[in-house]
Each structure stands twice: as structure tokens, then as C-alpha cells.
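Run log, item B.
One chain of 107 residues. Sequence copied directly from the ordering sheet:
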Amino acid sequence: KGDQTNRDAVHNYFRFGKALSERLAILMQKNPPQTAHTKLNEEVRERLPTHVNKTVVRRRVDTARKIYDIFNVIGEDKIRHVKSFTASSFSDLTRSEVAYIIKNLHV
């Protein structure tokens, strides 16, 4: 049951990351990258309770994008194989570690 709950959380982050990536692509059509990322974080924050601070928003957005970036390349279906990684484990990965995972797990 714990593994399934964890996979569900990772899958929810994947879907969130997909929506973020799609929105970011739209924002980047008319904004420089840094501005687009800032606007994206602001849009997410506007939809959350007021007590949620920018750091929490940025961390959740970053986690969702890392999970999406990995599983978008290696396959969304691979989420069902996740056992030892929690959603928060993905947040601890650096961008270079994400790139390494994508490069070495892409089939």
C-alpha cells in the first residue's frame, strides 16, 4: 500500500509537471526564460492558499518539473516501477543528476 501511495504521488507530480511545462512553453513565447519561470511560479501561487510561501511553491514546481522531465523521456508507464524513490527524493536531485538519469535510462 505504501508503494502504491508513493507511485500515486509521483504520478500526480508528473501530471502537474506536464501542465507546468505546457504553460511554460506558452509563457516563453512572449517572455525571456527567467521572466517566464517567475510568472509561472506566480500563477501557481495564486491558486494556492495565501499562507503558502514562494519557497514552497518553487520547491513543488521544481519537483514536478524534475519528475516530468524524467518520466516524459523514459516513459510515464515507468512510474509504476517506482519503489524506493518518493516524490521528495526527486526534489533532492540536482539538474545534472536529472540529466544523467534521463541519459542513462532512456531506451
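Observations after the first pass:
- Helices lie at 2-28, 33-46, 54-74, 87-91, 95-105.
- The longest helix spans residues 2-28.
Flagged for discussion on Thursday.
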